[in-house]
Amino acid sequence: SLGKDAGALLAGQKLLRVSDQINRRERAAMACEREMDRRMGCLALLPRVGLNPALAQAAVARCSTGERQRLALLRALQPGNRVLLLDEPTSGLDDAARALVEQLLQSRLAAGVAVLMVTHDAAQAQRLAHRHFELVGGQLQPARPGAALSPGGAR
Q1: Apex 152 CA angle, 148 and 154, nearest 5
Q2: What does pTM read for this prediction?
Q3: Model confidence over 84-136: pLDDT tens digits?
Q4: Distance CA 138, CA 121 (A)
Q5: Most buried in the list 50, 78, 80, 97, measured by CB within 10 Å?
Q6: CA 69 centroid distance within chain
């Protein structure tokens, strides 16, 4: 278990209904005011990733791949999470949606949230990361200071 202060976006996550995913962690404590604030915080993030708030009532099956990806990310970005574990959080997104997600991640980084992110996008790694690692021969290694990230390498 990641604990109550961590969120995760893992490749291949299955979603059922948008509102279920946003409310997943809060459902058991809906009467608690703090939990309601957290839920509203997630719903408020929909426009920040380019999604219409009305989408919260939609069936996920009707959402595009990019919409599903952003919804899964919002589940990880619940207010109060201090650690984010993200696996390819912008895969399947167009350039505009990718930029919105990166802005949101930058704001979380600036707020002191720790982010461990895997990406195959070397330019994205340069834009977002403070530290870089590469998977070389099955081993995770720190990237050499000042070394350019290889576009095909895993991060």
Answers
A1: 85
A2: 0.69
A3: 999 999 988 999 999 999 999 999 999 999 999 998 888 998 899 888 888 88
A4: 19
A5: 78
A6: 8
